[in-house]
Every structure is written in C-alpha cells, then in structure tokens.
Amino acid sequence: MEQITNVITVRKSLAWLQRFHFGPILATALVYDALAELSRAVASTPNSVTPVWPPDGFAVGIVLLCGKSVLPGIFLGSLGANIQAFWGDRNLITLLLSTVAVLGIAAGTTAGTQLGTDLFKQSTRSRYPFSQVSDTIRFLVYAGLLGPIVNATMGVGMLAAAGKIDFFENALSTWLTWWISNVAGIFILTPLILSGYRYLKLNQLSYRNLPKLIFHILNRKIVTPYSFKGVLSRLGIKAIPSKEIEFLFLTSSVFFISLSAFWNGQSIAYILIPLLIWAVFRFGDLGANLTAFLISLMAILGTVRGLGSFASPHLNQSLMGLQSFIVVVVFTSLILTATLAEQNTAKVKLDRAFADLKVANHVLEHQAKTLIQQNRTLERTLEELKFTQAQMVQSEKMSALGNLIAGVAHEINNPIGFLNGSIENAKEYANYLLEHIRLYQQKYPEPSRDIVEHAEDIDLEFLEEDFPKLFESMHNATGRVTGISKSLRAFTRSDTDQKVRAQLTENLDSTILILKYRLKATNHRSEIRVIRNYENLPEIYCFPGQMNQVFMNILANAIDAIEESAMEQSLENLPTRSYQITITTKLETNQIVISIADNAKGMDEATIARVFDHLFTTKGVNQGTGIGLSIAQEIVVTKHGGSINVRSQLNQGTEFLIRLPIDS
C-alpha cells in the first residue's frame, strides 16, 4: 500500500509540474534579464540611475500575450537582474538581508505586473488595447500606472530593509524615480510588443521570413479618411513617392531631429509631434509605436549622457523632464492611434452600409412596378421603428426611474424604522427621567441654591411640558416620511405577466409625489395646485406600473402646457394668474372614470385630432418625443380594454378622460 501511495504522490507532483511551461518561462526570464543588463549598460546615468526600465514593459506585454503562465519567468528575470547589485558584500548578515531584498523586489515586480494586467483584462475582456480610446486609457491607467505602484513600493521597502537607502531621507524620491521609470518602460515597450504581435498575427507572417515582413510593414494599407495620395493629388503633385521612400524619409527625419534636439541641445523637439502624427495616419499603430520608441530611445540616450534639452545639473530635474516627455509622446501616440482606429472601424461599417444600400437600390430598380408600394411600406416601417425605439427609450427611462425610486424608498425605510424605535425608547427614557426628577422634588422639597438656580436657567417646568410634545412632533415627522416611502413603493410596483388588483388613487398620488418638484413656484409662474376630487373606488385588475406611466405622461404634459402658458403671459398678469390641475375620479356602471384637467392655454382642433398620433409633438427640439400620449392610449385601450379621450378649448384648458372596466 505504501508503494502505491508513493506512486500516486509522485504522479500528482508530476502533474503539478506539467502545468508550468518551462520553455516560455526560461525564455521570459532570459529576455527580462538581458533587457535589464542592456538598460544598465546603455541607458544609465553617471549615477547608475536608469530613467526608463524596459524590462517591466516587456513583462506586461508578455503576460498580456501569454497569460499568467509566464509570471514565474518574470520573477526569475527580476531575480537575476538584481542579484548582482545586492551581493557585493560578503558579510553573512548583509548577504541574508540582500537575498531577502532581491526576492522581495522580484516578488513585487511579479505582483505589480499581475495586478496591472489582471485589472486591464477584467475591464476590457482581454481586447486589443489600442483599438478604442477607452481601452487605451484603461491600459495606461491599470497596467501603466497602478501596476508599477506595487513594484516601486515593494522595491523601495526592500532597499530600505537591506540598508541600501535611508528610508526617512530618500524613500520618497527613490520611490518616485522607480515608479516613473517603470511607467515609462511600460509606456514605451508594451505597445510596441502588442502592436507588433498583432501585426504578425493579422498578416500571418513569421519572424523567420524577415524580408517579407519588412515588405509588408512598408506597404501596409491603412484605411483612413485622410489619404496621403489624395492630398497630394489635390495639391497638383502627380509624382507620389512610394511607401518605402516615405517610411525611410519619416524615420530619417525623426532620427536627425531627435539627434539635434536630444544630443545637440537645439530646441526643436516640438517638430517631432507632426512626425508622430504622420506615422499614426500613414503607418497605423505599429508605425506610430515604432516612431514613439525611436523618439524615446534618442531622448534617453542623449539625456543619460548629459546632452540635449533635458540635461540638467540636477539629476532629478533631468529625469523628470525626460520621463514626462516620454509619457506625453507615448500617450499622444496611443490616444491618436485609438481614435483613428475607432474612426476606421466606423468608416468600414459605413462603407458596408453603403454597399448594402447599393444592393438594395439595384433590387429596387428591377422592381419599378412595386417601388411606390415598397416605399410606403418602408416609410411605415421606419415610422414604426422610430416609435418602437422611442418607446423602448421611454420604457428604459421609466425603469431607471423606478429602480432609483425603489432604491431611495428602501434606503429610507431602514433609518425611519430605526428612528421610530429610537423615538419610542427615547420618549420612555425621558418619562423615566422626568418621573425621577418629580420624585426627587417630592422627597427633597427644599433643594440647594445651586439646584434651584440651574432649574431656573434651564426652565425645568417648560422642559417637562414641552418634552412630550417634542417627541410627538418627531413621531409625526417620521410618520410623514413613512407615508412618502409607501407612495414611492406604490409607484415602483412591478408589473407581472398577469394583471393584479390595485387602487388607482394610490397610483395617482404616488405619481403626483414624483412630479411634486415641478409643481413648485418658479420665476415666471405661481405654484401649480393639484385638486383631488376622489370618490371611493374599488380595486381593479390592471398593470399598475403601466398605469403609472399613463398618469406620468398626462400629468407631465399638463405641467408642460402650464409652463408654456405661463411663459406667454405678461409680467402684469403673473402675480394674479393661478394654475391648477384637477384630478377627479368617480364610479360609473361597471367602470371607473379618471379625469385629469388643467387650466393652461388648451389646444386647437388640428392638434386635438393628432394628439394620440405616433411621434406627433408640439414641443420644441429635444423637449418632447411625441410618444407619451400614444403609449398612454395603447396601454389604456389595448392592454386594459378601456378608453381615453381628450377635450380642450383654446385659453380654457385641456381634460383627459380615462375609462377602465372594473372587471377586465
């Protein structure tokens, strides 16, 4: 049995080890370490400070491409990149501290890389980050800014623990330098890795076929609304250079301008911006990232040698200027690339739509006899589509409003319940205290002078009389809030597939409560009074949520009409004119009648005839959809088997009459 158990244990261990892909892990570690050594050898200042740390850019890129399976390679690469710098002292204690520090730095690098990439993948569902502006910003924030915080924090902590820096004097500046160098490395190298991999994948190219790869890069077709050849043609230039010459001219210009700006100290770095834009428009994301990489590389190499416009006697000032420039260049390049990619996608969709339209037109040309009928059908379909779309928007608004109100009502209930219980307890405690005071006064009728003066100062007799009134007022106030909460819940009552019994006067009251803020007085009119003439109505079977929408549409239209009427009144009539909405409910034979009337300016006969038409509105642009009353008619007539009518006279007002069967 023991042998069998040992065999099973060995197999489980082997299965666990098989999860690790040692080839990619080893390759990742070697590339990370090589980049680190290259950065120290080529791009370090005389003080051994590396302004940009490309290994972190490689780490983020390879994790985004290969997943978490290469994270051990990141750990090993960071371990190898830092181990020589820490093991210079042969003292045993220092050696142990250095070992812990190196392991901590490697762990921080791995954790920061995983954090940034995980946050980015979760927020974008692992999409390519440079096809949308929003995804690009998420990449820059999560992978480029947040992830390096872990790296820098862990690294500075390990440096302080190993005694490499004075925590209180140099921790902040060291952390900032570390963090910005990681950010710059990710900004520069990761986009280049991702765009290069994407280009190879889209064009089905392999690094083994290098000439073909270069040919494809130089002759890459970029779909943009700004054609380079088209611009030259409009300028009358017929001799158009080939893509190879154009690319060579671009890279040469970038190189020589960067050389002048960052090695010779000439103030012409701003000329690189239009060249970067040129690369974005003509060579896409890969060309833009290559150009940004070349600009950043020239700036780094010049600055670390004390040359160029960023060189300064103060190291921190030089590093901040260089790193800020790199971040701005890469940020501009990536955002512009993503914007152009979004525009290209929209153009492709638009071209596809135009192609479909041409096919449809060709079909219509061969069906000339039925063209008129088809156009009429198309117009009706378009109108129905607009109505359906507007109806969906309206439903979404009502749903969002209902969810908001339901949430507010739910949040109100908890503190109100607590207040109700607390008020009762406080009232009981206060009575105990007052009773105790009265008992004390009975037992000690002649208190000391201090007690008498204090009782006069606080007006003890008034407190004994007013305390119960105060608690009663608080109880009444919480009762009012509870009533408001119940009205809100009544408004947000969910519909089901079947009708339920409801008291529509409650729905009316809850709708008025929602619109109460619009009834208050404004600068150009007095307060709108709501007059309720309710009869005792029985509960009816209906869809309460849909009836709320009917009442909301009619009451909102009444308020809009009053607003418009008030705007047309002269200032002299403003104080004397009163506005009101009268709601009347009554019971007729086997049906209930709900009347909603206002005293606004009314409607003419032409408007009355079209008031329930789809998409008909008398309001201005962006003020009305023209579907509110149409939806109300559909709900009342189709869904409830009732009727809705309107009566109106100019300068007299408007009345809507809703009739609903009691037993439907």
Describe the fold and architecture:
By secondary structure, the chain is an alpha+beta fold. The protein has 4 domains: 20-204, Arp2/3 complex 21 kDa subunit ARPC3 (Orthogonal Bundle), CATH 1.10.1760; 229-366, no CATH class; 369-492; 500-661, Histidine kinase-like ATPase, C-terminal domain (Heat Shock Protein 90). Helices cover 69% and strands 7% of the residues. It has helices spanning 2-18, 22-42, 54-66, 71-86, 92-124, 133-161, 167-203, 210-218, 228-234, 243-262, 272-304, 315-365, 371-443, 449-457, 460-491, 504-514, 516-519, 544-568, 605-610, 628-639, and strands at 500-502, 528-533, 540-542, 579-588, 591-598, 643-649, 653-661. The strands form 2 sheets. Strands 2-4-5-7-6 form a 5-stranded mixed beta sheet. A hairpin with a 3-residue loop joins strand 6 (643-649) and strand 7 (653-661). Mean pLDDT is 76; it is low at 13-18 and 220-228.
